[in-house]
């Protein structure tokens, strides 16, 4: 507001709320034209972001409560639908949490099959992310190339599980179907193609100026900040802290098919690009290794419809980082309580820290850089402290602004 | 090694891909062949269905409703005969009913074109006609 006292400019958090004019919000954050609703309020001084206030909860679907009304098996399909990209991570986390409460042992073959599908999911998720970074940085050619290549992985997933997105593959006691006949040769051929493409993209993202100018030194976080805010997944590893649930607390067959934890020291978006592409290459290796080592035998054991009384906590390394499940059973046919913490929730604070000190033009790339599970900046309102003015930008407007801003700087 | 900075590094690849045939499927003129395991529209074999109601119990999306279609006598008892009716517009194609049907009456077909103008056309009642 124009009558806001100048002395309050440096205040953060709730203190800034007094700047908000009444009746703001022309439309959104929930609007049919937006992909996934989310709201970030950015406080600016000129071009520079000084404070970020994220608001979450626009897509609260009450899934944890709904799970208490459904049987254990029905819940697998419900939890898969939390995320369309890492659906298999959700289902293996839930099924393994429940399996850990029962005396039944999952067959070795099922553990290996879970690794194969989980790693294929990581490959397609990281490729999707790379395409999105290309799109938001104004490099749509990269977006189209990467998404074309991602189709190869999705086809493999469809061949193994029966669906591209919601795989519905993991179940209590193993997986629902065995690997199809002759899938090994097909996977090897397709992953060979992916590896070739990823090697090219790795070179491209480090050399092509269209990307380097938008990513190098942008959204940098230090190791100390990372330790303080505890991000998970690639966002943590890009600061040089090599933590990965797959190596620290191996689940499925990760104790036998070991991942090589990728780290990077720069902590900016450019290093995230290389780090995620390295993870894709490592995942390709792991899928092939798992298919070579996979033992024969049953892929599923019969599992009762009720779960013994008790509670379990389980975490897996989803493509975005540590995904945590807490499950409590009262011995009946429905869970008593399920608590989920998704990686984006853990990374949100770090993303706001990454935005501070950046320019408004960097917002799309930085927010995509954290690989959010919501459509991120489709609704951003901007507050300029100097002019005491507030306005809103849609995601597309923000993208165009960023591209124009950098075009002006380069010229 | 400090990577080199250059503009237009992707031009070579751009020319190469420009000469390749389009990757996009020309739907609906060309239809993608789905995987053998693809889970599409649910189908029921009315002859094999015994009306045991297991599919109704396990369905996570509430697609299946058991409808009474008549009565039959088993020994000295008269019992109600039920058959499933499917509201396929809520079906999530998970295939749990197919897994749990011990009579092999349910299958998931490869049909993925389920967009309709009238959702009533996705109510499948063919199991109600036979086996009364």
The CATH architecture of chain B: 2-Layer Sandwich
Content of β-strand of chain A:
5-15%
Radius of gyration of chain A: 22 Å
Shape of chain A: globular
Radius of gyration of chain B: 24 Å
Secondary-structure element pattern of chain A, one letter each = EEHHHHHEEHHHHHHEEEHHEEH
Major beta sheet summary of chain A = 4 strands, mixed
Biggest sheet strand line-up of chain B: 2-3-5
Envelope shape of chain B? elongated
Number of separate strands of chain A: 9
Roughly how many Å apart are the termini of chain A?
Answer: 36 Å
- Low confidence ranges of chain A: 1-28, 30-34, 375-380
DSSP helix fraction of chain A: 40-55%
Major beta sheet of chain B, specifics?
A: 3 strands, antiparallel
User: Could you name the CATH topology of the largest domain in chain A?
Assistant: Cytochrome-c3 Hydrogenase, chain B
CATH class of the largest domain in chain A: Mainly Alpha
The number of E-state strands of chain B comes to 5
Strand order within the widest beta sheet of chain A: 2-1-8-9
Count of discrete domains of chain A: 2
Describe the structure.
The complex is a heterodimer of chains A (411) and B (132). By secondary structure, chain A is an alpha+beta fold. Chain A has two domains: 31-59 and 345-410, no CATH class; 102-301, Cytochrome-c3 Hydrogenase, chain B, CATH 1.10.645. Chain A has 14 helices and nine strands. In chain A, the strands form three sheets. Chain A has a four-stranded mixed sheet. Chain A has a three-stranded antiparallel sheet with strand order 5-6-7. In chain A, a hairpin with a 2-residue loop joins strand 3 (170-171) and strand 4. By secondary structure, chain B is an alpha+beta fold. In chain B, strand 2 and strand 3 form a beta hairpin. The radius of gyration of chain B is 24 Å and the shape is elongated. Chain B has a single domain (34-128), classed as Alpha-Beta Plaits, CATH 3.30.70.3270. In chain B, the strands form two sheets. Chain B has a three-stranded antiparallel sheet, with no helix packed on it. In chain B, strands 1-4 form a two-stranded antiparallel sheet. Chain B has helices at residues 11-18, 54-58, 96-100; strands at 42-44, 64-74, 77-87, 106-108, 123-124.
